[in-house]
Specification:
single chain, 8-stranded antiparallel beta sheet
Length: about 450
């Protein structure tokens, strides 16, 4: 059955003088002016994410930045911003959440959990600094412990704000592309799984786990590798963590292996390669963990791209369903995995939200389009594809309309991207869309609230 029609009108015009942005709606627009926000100075966006930082049920947009339109080895650190939707106006509330403004070089993933067991939300910024070895430019500007150059930054909640505790966190020796969090050994708080990539050790160095010991984060042993004929990248670029068998201990999934958390200690087992995705799409770039088939067990969606050698183009999706007794099984009918999607359809990351208010958790992407064939800094539109869930973990590809489709006029410095943010009301969510407009020097973000009475619009 095709998705029921819903409306999505995003036509608007922006006029910018300096950093003052005014939004003038066109006919049919769903924005309430003024509601646009732009980065200050020379900052440009990087990999944004959504999270509920203060526990009020309303997600914020956490948006790292880079200096200028192209990051390079000696780029200076730039701010990480927290943007909050207030009456359909996007407001920078970074200093309301953080004791000092976080500064980073290139955050790849942001995760929120309780890392020290005090019942409060904490934040880790993964891949926030430069590599510490195997790079010649380190002789020019090496990493400074306790400063902005850490590979990972950890901020702990203290007296209502996040305080930088990165000096208490063990740093990766190499660039780490992603991380995940979970209570693997039932300590009552989340550990942080760190992926190391590159360097002289191996193309994909072993992942290690860091756990709070009361005064600092202690490094745990690298994840073991199965012996035998397995080669390649068993843990890989990325990991996912969740209690997939619901035994009270979080489990960690890599490219080809899974570490099951058990009462007697971790057990490593093989994770079969994806059956439906060709080897061309072997580069794991993102994931979602949620119960998608309503059986009470968390499931895992891997987002895969082509390999760096072939250009990091497009995306494919694979679903593994959780179950009792260390069960994580690929669901072969979840996605039309061999279908060729439009390169502009999907972003690099995703989250779960009931996008059409039918009671089932759908998959929505966020960020810019995931394609290097057409640089996402000059992409003609933001991602506009979603996966609609039938309630049993089978997904249908659908597209909503996107009126912000004029090619960037910002000299290659404007992104087209989109973010979906949950609210405390299950029948409402916020949509933030970024684009480059006539008169704007860079990406500007606008926001609207979607409800059953003011929904999106599906394309035929």
């Amino acid at each position: 059955m095709p998705p029921r029609p819903i409306r999505f009108a995003l036509s608007c015009a922006l006029f910018v003088v300096g950093l003052t942005v005014a939004l003038v709606p066109l006919k049919g627009a769903a924005f309430a002016p003024p509601n646009a926000w732009m980065f200050p100075g020379t900052e440009q966006e990087w990999f944004g994410t959504t999270a509920d930082l203060d526990g009020d049920g309303v997600e914020e947009l956490i948006m790292p930045s880079i200096d200028g339109s192209a990051i390079h080895a000696l780029s200076p650190p730039t701010a990480i911003h927290v943007l909050k939707v207030e009456d359909q106006i996007l407001v920078d509330r970074t200093t309301d959440f953080f004791a000092t403004v976080p500064m980073s070089w290139a955050v790849r993933r942001t995760m929120v959990g309780d890392f020290d067991g005090d019942g409060q939300r904490d934040v880790v910024f993964c891949g926030a600094g430069r590599e510490t070895t195997d790079r010649s430019y380190l002789t020019l500007r090496p990493r400074v412990p306790g400063a902005w150059g850490e590979q990972n930054q950890v901020w702990l909640r203290r007296d209502g704000v996040f305080v930088d505790a990165s000096a208490l966190f063990p740093q990766a020796a190499f660039y780490n592309h992603g991380c995940s969090i979970g209570d693997v050994d039932h300590r009552g708080h989340d550990s942080i799984m760190v992926n190391q990539v590159g360097g002289a050790v191996a193309p994909y160095s072993p992942t290690f786990m860091a756990s709070w010991n009361g005064t600092q984060f202690a490094t745990r042993a690298p994840f073991p590798l199965l012996t035998g004929t397995r080669t390649g990248k068993p843990w890989g670029f990325w990991t996912a963590t969740g209690d997939y068998d619901q035994n009270g201990y979080a489990d960690v999934v890599g490219d080809l292996e899974i570490l099951w958390g058990t009462p007697t200690g971790p057990v490593v087992a093989s994770l079969p390669p994806n059956a439906l995705v060709t080897p061309t799409f072997g580069n794991w770039q993102g994931e979602v963990t949620a119960d998608l088939n309503a059986d009470g067990y968390p499931d895992l969606v891997k987002i895969l791209s082509t390999t760096p050698a072939t250009g990091l183009d497009a995306a494919r999706f694979v679903l593994y369903t959780g179950g009792p007794n260390r069960t994580l099984t690929e669901k072969l009918d979840a996605f039309p995995a061999l279908q060729t999607y439009n390169d502009n359809d999907f972003g690099i990351d995703a989250t779960v939200i009931d996008v059409n208010f039918d009671g089932f958790p759908d998959l929505v992407v966020f960020g810019p389009t995931y394609s290097s064939a057409a640089d996402h800094r000059t992409a003609s539109k933001s991602p506009n594809a979603v996966w609609l869930n039938d309630g049993a973990g089978r997904f249908t590809l659908a597209h909503f309309s996107d009126r912000l489709d004029a090619r960037s006029v910002c000299g290659g410095r404007g992104y087209r991207d989109i973010y979906f943010l949950k609210t405390a009301d299950p029948m409402a969510y916020n949509v933030i869309i970024g684009g480059c407009y006539p008169g704007a020097a860079k990406t500007a973000y606008s926001v609207r609230t979607v409800t059953p009475d003011d929904p999106l619009t599906w394309l035929p």
